[in-house]
């Protein structure tokens, strides 16, 4: 088997990359390990998707449905479901796949990595105490409730205030469970403000900051937790230790890009994903990356936009039409934790620079400069670590490395 | 009286300030018209889109109300959705029309992902 573009992962990211690749007449293959395309969207049954991209409010499954329809209408896309990639041979441009057909090799001209991310587990966060039945990651709980139609408990504590945890707080409450509290070890939530409002405040579920689980209690089934507050260095304050009984614990404590297949690529220690330029090209000229595999997003619409670019450039590269040129670095001030892309190829066109900040700021200007000349400036009311920021500018203005700063507008 | 709230109409999450002067509702902090509509609705009749699942004999499908419904009717609506019995439901099917006289229909948003056997 041989394709111009091979895409690993058929979630929102892989589907968007495939559509753009097919539009440029590149022969495209999507490899998906699940029984259906759509990835995590199929279990995100709540609304609020697609406002930016489709200009209408959709549920996750509907967003995935629209993309599946688009894919069925593209003649250049093949899809392999229930298929795993077991190896990537970068020297010979071959991926090894495993399915009910056995083991096969697929040759690619360009490869797109859109494998998404995995949840951090009880082991990852060194959760102490016993390991009885009843401890779930938020995504697993979501899959059990929304795909399998099973309830996971009656009396629930949620650790971590990531978006999936907040969404599950509402979902479990609606299905009749009592969600006692959401505990967040940090002073701010990593979830979107709207989700705190509509998932917790609507149901009077308390969000306890600087609070964490000290110990899980229970032999066969979760019976409760000891919890309490932490100081600024995340040390447990033993004098605040209290007991709360519960029969299920949900962990919403972060997501990590699934980079196992390409563990030899250079990994950014902030995003845990790879580095890319504005073509979404990794350190290998014919390997592209996008979506939650690259960095964890808040909004699927952003995943789509980013992945369209990856698919387009992967196709152009396969067809020998991707322009090569000098690359400039994106530097940034200390409040910025990372930028995507991290380098920009000299040339024409618009760049959307995406980034996160380490702490909350208000009323500030985002400023991009190059050789002491300001090339983009944007005022924002506020920024939070949990919310991705974007600033766009014209590439033709770039004559050297560029610098991104966040400057307060108040004295 | 001034009320502060976070707009839930889109992921931007604007911080709104809502003030009721006589019979007029004044909204500030919003970046678009949807914020003004949301704040006004929150003070008069708060509404939400309700989503859930229905377990059919052929798998679990997801559903939503095709319009937001009054918040105070959500508890009753989720019970009605939970009581639906069906052999098979497909994307786009209307499961309950005009639920609780809200003008909203409950529609299927996803086919069953897995074949389902109890």
Structure explained in plain terms:
The complex is a heterodimer of chains A (411) and B (118). Helix content of chain A is 18%, strand content 36%. By secondary structure, chain A is an alpha/beta fold. Chain A has three domains: 1-119 and 255-324, FAD/NAD(P)-binding domain (3-Layer(bba) Sandwich); 121-253, FAD/NAD(P)-binding domain; 325-411, Immunoglobulin-like. In chain A, helix 1 (12-23) packs parallel to helix 2 (60-72) and helix 4 (163-174) packs parallel to helix 5. Chain B has 118 residues and is of the alpha+beta class. In chain B, strand 1 and strand 2 form a beta hairpin. The A-B interface holds A 35-36, 42, 45-48, 51-52, 57, 59, 61-62, 64-65, 145-149, 174-175, 192-194, 196-198, 202, 298-299, 381-382, 387 and B 5-15, 48-53, 55, 60, 62-64, 71, 74, 78, 91, 109-110, 113-114, 116.
Gist of the model:
The complex is a heterodimer of chains A (411) and B (118). Chain A has 411 residues and is an alpha/beta fold. Chain A contains six helices and 27 strands.
C-alpha-based Rg of chain B, rounded: 18 Å
Distance between the termini of chain A: 63 Å
Domains of chain A, number:
3
- Using only C-alpha atoms, the radius of gyration of chain A works out to 22 Å
The largest sheet of chain A is: 7 strands, mixed
Poorly predicted ranges of chain B: none
Which second-level CATH architecture of the largest domain in chain B applies?
Roll
What's the overall average pLDDT of chain A, rounded? Answer: 95
Annotated CATH homologous superfamily of the largest domain in chain B: CPE0013-like
Largest interface: A-B, 34 and 31 residues
Spatial ordering of strands, largest sheet of chain B: 5-6-9-8
Net shape of chain A: globular
Q: Give the tally of β-strands of chain B.
A: 9
Helical element count of chain A? 6
Strand content of chain A: 35-45%
* Largest sheet features of chain B: 4 strands, antiparallel
Q: According to CATH, what is the topology of the largest domain in chain A?
A: FAD/NAD(P)-binding domain
